[in-house]
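Changelog entry: the 4Fe-4S binding protein record was regenerated in this release. Current contents:
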Amino acid sequence: MAGLPMLREILVQSVKKPVTNLFPAVRLPKSITGFLGSVAEGKAAVVPPVETPPAFRGRIVYDRDACNGCGLCLKVCPAHAIEQVVYPPVTVRMTDAEGNVSEKVKKEKRVRIYVSSCIFCGQCTDICSRDALRMGDAFLIATEDRFAEEQIVE
Ligand code: SF4
Ligand code: SF4
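Regenerated structure tokens:
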């Protein structure tokens, strides 16, 4: 009677809620653009996405204050999604404990990440000794403009 367990499973599955997340809408809209327009006007609502699991690799997050511009992340990035940015030198004035003032010319180096080129491998976050890079949770990042503001992290 191999058919009985299967019949039971069919009955169970037919009354169970779907496991998949009905994102962004319960029913597929005729036009996604139209649907998003209705959402913007408050006439429709987006079914929220599921929570991302731990160690999810979404859009990269950059802490530029922690970065020292060492450039290691550029070297390991297989997608060449990171470039170094060198800012014009600035003169920094320093005063020591005895009150002596000295000046030092500092060249600030940081990085810029092009999210549209990123393949979310996490190599750059692994190599960064300053924890200046981490894989974030954001994944709704599709766009028609690869140079849009939200596609460039710096
Ligand atoms: S993000 Fe990290 S690895 Fe990349 S340049 Fe800055 S400190 Fe170096
Ligand atoms: S996650 Fe991978 S592809 Fe994306 S910027 Fe880092 S090293 Fe490059």
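The chain has a mean pLDDT of 91.
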